[in-house]
Amino acid sequence: MANRKLVAVVIGASRGIGAEFVKQLHEDEYCVIATVRKSVDVHVQGASMVVDAVELESTESMTKAAQKVPEADLLIINASMGEDETMITTDSNRLNHYLDLNVTGTHRAIQAFLPALRARKTRKIVVLATYCGSFYHAIHEPIPTFNGPYAVSKAALHMLAVQYHKELSKEGFTVLPIDPGWVDTDMGRLAGDPIQEGGNPPEISIKGMLEAINSVKPDDEIRIIDYSGTVIPW
């Protein structure tokens, strides 16, 4: 890819937050590679290239996608699963599915795209975090929705980001776990009506996240922040 533009890869870009990331990154003059799960989602506004049939649960599909991207400055892993469930009604297969998608799937994506990120000097990795995965909030300021297996998997995702930051910072990488907040998406609406009850449209959330992504530096201490730049207690 003989491209001197900044190159961004967005995992999970067919709709909602991922699609808005692609749109705004394109407006910021990035060359954007978008991955989607289904071939029917091959058109993503603003994408320079769309790679379909990419599943977080599949090492093979993620590896094949990464082979099409020789270099990248920014990797955003947006794809995940989440519903309002409880631990006592979740069997082990369901919990493993959460962990395989939200945690191991993120690991698959990072491992697959490390060579592309190492080919450039910016070397930023962004994972979509959430206050639902904060021990502090779970204990001191619990919320009524998105607890259970979703919260467990997101807490594990936060630690995954910490470990990658520790291991890759010496190579000039920045790993940023960032919470998009309550956004008006299909998943966000499971908790109610975001627009009527204080949530944000995707364009507001992504604008704030991109400002934070652009400002973070490799020598910054890793922390979880939200789209407004506010630090979320762990």
Automatic annotation (TrEMBL):
> What GO MF annotations does this protein's record show?
oxidoreductase activity, acting on the CH-OH group of donors, NAD or NADP as acceptor
Q: Which residues cross the membrane?
A: none
The cross-references to Pfam families, in alphabetical order and at most eight, read: adh_short
Q: What InterPro entries does the annotation carry?
A: NAD(P)-bd_dom_sf, SDR_enzymes, SDR_fam
This chain belongs to the protein called Uncharacterized protein
Query: From which organism does this entry originate?
Result: Collybiopsis confluens
**What taxonomic ancestry is recorded?**
Eukaryota, Fungi, Dikarya, Basidiomycota, Agaricomycotina
